Amino acid sequence: MEKTQKDNFGSRLGFILAAAGSAVGLGNIWRFPYLAAKYGGGIFLIVYIALAVTFGFALMVTEIALGRKTGKSVIGAYKTVKKGFGFLGWIAAIVPFIITPYYCVIGGWVLKYLVTFMTAKGQEAAGEGEFFKGFIGQAGQPLVFFVIFAVLTAAVVILGVQKGIEKISKFLMPLLVVLIIGIVIYTLTLPGAMDGVKYYLLPNIDGFTAGTWLKTLAAAMGQLFYSMSLAMGIMVTYGSYMRKEDSIEKSVRSIEIFDTAIAVLAGLIVVPSVFIFSGGNASQLNAGPSLMFITLPNVFDSMKGGQIIGSLFFMLVALAALTSSISLLETMVSIISEKFKLKRAVSTAIALAFVFVFGAFSVFGYSIWDKVTILGYQILDFFDFISNNMMMPFVAFLTCILIGFVAKTKYIEDEVLIGEENFKAKKLYRVMVRYICPVCMILILITPFIFEL
Ligand code: PHE
Question: pTM here?
Answer without folding.
Answer: 0.92
